[in-house]
Design brief:
The protein contains four helices and ten strands, in the order ββααβββαβαββββ. It is an alpha+beta fold and about 190 residues long. It has a domain of about 130 residues: Aminopeptidase (3-Layer(aba) Sandwich). The protein has an eight-stranded mixed beta sheet, sandwiched between helices. Strands 9-10 form a two-stranded antiparallel ribbon. It is globular, with a radius of gyration of 16 Å.
């Protein structure tokens, strides 16, 4: 990820679920071009700003970005897109199928991205969220993000301000191989 560490084809979910080759069990893996239609469908179902196939292709190909997907029964259920501008990480978008929200999928995707970012040397994660998206704001606060600014009229259709939120990444991450690494963030 981010050109600093080798990309992994799959990541073990913290709850003990292991990647299954036939994908009947939950699996987190890097997105491919074949996933783009499902990502666009999730954009629509989740009420997220729609990205074009070219935007997704660019993110998938970029060394500074990572798009991960949560697959269950061969179906993309959720995804997370991040960009690294070390020492910072930007959470570009995260979405989970509405029928599967509240199951910890977004949390697992976010934790995976943050863990990878720490290993790549990132210290903080930033994001923008619609001012009125109380469910997302509550989720981000629970995950340790705090509001640090406002972007006026940031969103279109409808026009709305964005809250800028930040998380200082100073926690211990456990790799897929079980190794533990501690990053203390900025002094």
């Amino acid at each position: 990820m981010f050109g600093f560490i080798p990309r992994q084809a799959a990541r073990q979910f913290e709850g003990g679920m292991k990647p299954d080759p036939d994908q009947r069990k939950p699996l987190i893996r890097l997105a491919t071009f074949a996933d783009i239609p499902a990502l666009q469908q999730l954009d629509s179902l989740c009420g997220l700003n729609a990205w074009t196939p070219d935007v997704y292709k660019g993110l998938i190909l970029s060394d500074s970005c990572e798009v991960t997907v949560w697959i269950n029964d061969r179906t993309v259920i959720g995804f997370c897109a991040v960009r690294s501008v070390c020492p910072d990480l930007e959470l570009l978008k995260i979405g989970v199928h509405p029928e599967r929200q509240g199951e910890g999928i977004a949390t697992a995707l976010l934790h995976g991205a943050l863990s990878d970012a720490i290993k790549a040397g990132c210290h903080e994660c930033f994001l923008e969220v619609r001012w009125s998206n109380n469910r997302a704001i509550s989720f981000y606060k629970k995950e340790g993000f705090e509001m640090v600014g406002i972007r006026r009229k940031y969103y279109r259709a409808p026009v709305e301000d964005a809250r800028v939120m930040r998380k200082k990444m100073a926690f211990t991450a456990t790799d897929v191989d079980g190794a533990t690494r501690t990053n203390t963030g900025r002094a």
